[in-house]
């Protein structure tokens, strides 16, 4: 058997994150970039040149031209969230597989339009939550699933924050109500919510309550917020997301017999090595002068960065659909929808004055 034909990507827009993902497409062994579209042809040409696109890649002065290109199998969409429903639905209708940046939509109603379009066209949908594809994530789940070392999740706490700075807080699309109205909740809160659901094996919480004193800009966009989540079996979780606090990317998961901590879950501090820390059956030593055992560090190496592993996984699914007639993998749209449902509940709680909100799938 010969090498599989690479999945041919088109990119809609020249967002900064597209620089990272286009690098990933160049690194992944089963993908190639064939087109980039921008509202400005000149911008598309310079973006392709500056980011090492193949010489054969086409530059277009519109997004429609990318979707109309018969050489494009799949599209990566890093546009502002308010534009996702329009362009993702159109991409699916034109039989293009959809890799969509997060947050995937402004609310679950919009996401359902996207997912329905993908399903009816038989195309793969995946959100671009990169850490899900790092081999460390698999290893951490193995620990959480070990009845001897961890047993049962009791509580999860997640934080993702960074300082946006004056220019960001004034001009970035993530603080504009017409572009990314969810603000920090949609950007950093998406990761926190996904981490919590991942730890809970994607079992949705029964209720969500936003924590008081969320911070907003003058346009009413969320700059920082938090929430508590509660499950019927007694599990609890909290998260904090912010554009106003020092860079932090933590998950802490407490179990009956163990705990797990990771300090760089969104983007590893080192591209090729990613640590996490676990301990089981911890006890204070004599006179409570310390604890035993001390947390153990596990360092997971990877040859490809997590964004390239994401592209490789997505391209593998698309290749199976194209070459083998496989059906789209339903796990990814379901995980996206559950994440969006929880975000919607947090937003509803904030809008209702931090009242308790039931989570409805």
UniProtKB/TrEMBL annotation:
Residues spanning the membrane: none
Entry-linked InterPro entries: Gfo/Idh/MocA-like_OxRdtase_N, GFO_IDH_MocA-like_dom, NAD(P)-bd_dom_sf
Domain GFO/IDH/MocA-like oxidoreductase: 152-260
Pfam families associated with the record: GFO_IDH_MocA, GFO_IDH_MocA_C3
The Gfo/Idh/MocA-like oxidoreductase N-terminal domain, residue ranges: 7-126
Family note: Belongs to the Gfo/Idh/MocA family.
Record protein name field: Gfo/Idh/MocA-like oxidoreductase N-terminal domain-containing protein
């Amino acid at each position: 058997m010969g090498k599989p034909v690479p999945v041919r990507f088109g990119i809609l827009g020249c967002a900064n994150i597209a620089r990272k993902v286009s690098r990933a497409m160049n690194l992944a062994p089963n993908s190639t970039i064939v087109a980039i579209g921008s509202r400005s042809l000149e911008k598309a040409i310079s973006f392709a040149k500056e980011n090492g696109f193949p010489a054969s890649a086409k530059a277009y002065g519109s997004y429609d031209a990318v979707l109309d290109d018969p050489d494009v199998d799949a599209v990566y969409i890093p546009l502002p969230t308010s534009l996702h429903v329009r362009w993702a639905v159109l991409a699916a209708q034109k039989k293009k597989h959809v890799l969509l940046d997060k947050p995937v939509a402004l609310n679950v109603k919009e996401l359902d339009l996207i997912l329905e379009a993908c399903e009816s066209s038989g195309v793969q949908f995946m959100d671009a939550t990169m850490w899900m594809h790092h081999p460390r994530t698999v290893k951490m789940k193995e620990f959480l699933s070990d009845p001897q070392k961890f047993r049962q999740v009791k509580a999860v706490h997640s934080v993702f924050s960074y300082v946006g700075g004056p220019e960001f807080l004034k001009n970035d699309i993530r603080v504009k109500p017409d572009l990314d109205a969810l603000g920090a909740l949609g950007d950093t809160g998406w990761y926190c919510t996904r981490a919590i659901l991942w730890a809970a094996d994607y079992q949705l919480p029964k209720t969500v309550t936003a924590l008081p004193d969320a911070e907003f800009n003058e346009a009413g966009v969320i700059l920082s917020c938090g929430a508590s989540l509660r499950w019927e079996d007694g599990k609890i979780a909290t998260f904090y997301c912010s554009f106003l606090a020092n860079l932090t990317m933590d998950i802490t998961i407490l179990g009956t017999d163990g705990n797990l901590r990771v300090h760089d879950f969104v983007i590893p501090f080192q591209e090729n090595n990613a640590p996490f820390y676990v301990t089981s059956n911890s006890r204070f030593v004599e006179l409570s002068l310390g604890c035993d055992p001390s947390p153990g560090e596990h360092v997971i190496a990877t040859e490809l960065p997590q964004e390239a592993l994401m592209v490789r996984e997505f391209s593998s699914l698309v290749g199976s659909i194209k070459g083998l007639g496989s059906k789209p993998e339903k796990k990814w749209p379901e995980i996206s929808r559950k994440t969006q449902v929880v975000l919607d509940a947090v937003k509803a709680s904030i809008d209702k004055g931090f009242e308790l909100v039931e989570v409805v799938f």
